[in-house]
Amino acid sequence: MLLGLSEKGSFPRKVTKVAARKLSFTRLDQGKPLLNRGTLDQYRLVVVCVKGNVSVKETMSLILKEAIGPDGPCPTLVLGPTAPEELSTDWTGKVGWITFVDGTSIAHPSTDVEIISPDNLLEVNLFIEKAAQGDGSQIILGDFLDNIIKSIGSPESFYSFFCQLASRIRLRKRTAILVIKEDIHEKSMVEMVKRFADIVLEFRDQDNEGALSVEMRTLNFADNIYTRWLPFPQALRPLCTNYT
Questions:
Q1: pLDDT at residue 133 in the model
Q2: Centroid of chain to Cα 187
Q3: What is the Cα–Cα distance from 240 to 222, expressed in whole angstroms?
Q4: 129-152 residue pLDDT tens
Q5: Fewest CB within 10 angstroms: 82, 117, 235, 242, which?
Q6: Per-residue confidence at 238, pLDDT binned at 50, 70, 90?
Q7: What is the 3 state secondary structure string of 134-188?
Q8: Annotated domain spans of the chain
Q9: Which residues contact 14 (CB under 8 A, 6 or more apart)?
Q10: Fold designation for 34-243
């Protein structure tokens, strides 16, 4: 009997379990989108980057519907360019809107929406800290980084802010799904965000003689699994409304 084998000709159980996990994840990447329920909340920091005509709002709606679902944990929404009323959901959780205060946001009718200026990083951190408290599995979802990156004074300030955010999420064992519009920011800022992630999901549009499609690529740093650009299911493509 060979050393390290549980039975003749078989692999140790631990190796078999790891292989099965990676095989399952690879099949998920190659066959179905990684947005299946119960998949993303295994990780702490998920960064979703969208380009071109891929819509941030539609991508968040897709995540709410496919990855979380109505029976999943009620997420805390931390929004930025997407206004709360633009994201139609059945959830009743707390909403943070990281936006510059103007007449529109002041008049927001919902008492469940807490409005915070994107240059007030202390208040943003406090809101996320409160959202990360409590028992059970909790998910934070939002596109607030787009407004933070645009308003922050320097890359160093953003790095300090994001370090604190990532540390808080990991310490509290929460899942943060952060959606950013990649092509409106400097590449160095986007790469900085990606470096903190356990998983990066990238979406881009492809124009094939007027027929617009969406492709997705997965960079799974946590499990060291990476995919090429793969076609996203037509029925689920998160395109801007002008193209759906």
A1: 78
A2: 18
A3: 31
A4: 887 776 656 889 999 999 999 998
A5: 235
A6: low
A7: CCCCCEEEECCHHHHHHHCCCHHHHHHHHHHHHHHHHHCCCEEEEEEEHHHCCHH
A8: 34-243
A9: none
A10: Rossmann fold (3.40.50)
